[in-house]
Amino acid sequence: MISNLCAAKQSFLFTNTQPRFAFETFFLQKINLNKMTKPKVIKKSSTAAKHKIVANDRDGKSLGPAATTLLNVLAVLVVGSPNNDSIKKSKLQLMAEIKGKSTFANAQTKLKNAGFILVEKDTVFITSSGMGAATIDAANINIPATNAALHDATKEKHKLNAKQIALFDHLANGGTYNKKEVQVALGINASSTWANLMTSLKKLEIVEYDRETIRLTDAMFEIEGRPEM
What we know:
With 229 residues, the protein is mostly helical. It has three domains: 1-31; 37-139, Winged helix-like DNA-binding domain superfamily/Winged helix DNA-binding domain (Arc Repressor Mutant, subunit A, Orthogonal Bundle), CATH 1.10.10; 147-221, Winged helix-like DNA-binding domain superfamily/Winged helix DNA-binding domain (Arc Repressor Mutant, subunit A), CATH 1.10.10.10. It has helices at 2-15, 22-31, 65-79, 89-96, 101-113, 128-133, 136-139, 147-158, 162-171, 179-185, 191-203, and strands at 86-88, 117-120, 123-126, 177-178, 207-209, 213-216. The strands form two sheets. Strands 1-3-2 form a three-stranded antiparallel β-sheet. A three-stranded antiparallel β-sheet has the order 4-6-5. The longest helix has 15 residues, at 65-79. The protein is elongated and about 55 Å long. It starts with a helix and ends in a 13-residue tail after the last strand.
């Protein structure tokens, strides 16, 4: 069915110059992927790179800082993965450091309406026009290559204290642990101290727990996936 759909869409695209619907644009971008416009690169020493650069849509209307950051980070991720023109939403939100599901959703909608991205379920694709509108150096991000590098970056980003780091490191292998056993292992006697410690990392979306167990969230393993235990 998928092959028939692809053939039908390709037939349409080669006999019509302008796609009318989102899915037609998606197939057009996939066909023309090798011809994708290279993103603008601004040297870090330039005046523009020292300030937040806000992208505009095709009508010249400002996309706003969140959508601009999202677009730039997506471009960086795609350029870093030459064999893949799509990125998982969860990884994109994590790397763009956009807090709040509504903020991320609104930024995504702006980019989609501007024709800069295409969205399929949990995956985001960047279009040729999106690559052309992106400014690579404006993203100013370092993409971790491993889960360990992501963990280090997360600790630094949130300025975790000694107790938070100790809990983080105890859970770093991706396993699920009994909460009481972890509390004992870390030498935390006061229940209130333990509860506050867990809550502080949960708010940062670093850990998740239920009545009995605790572990790092899936977001902490976006680079290589959660190790099999």
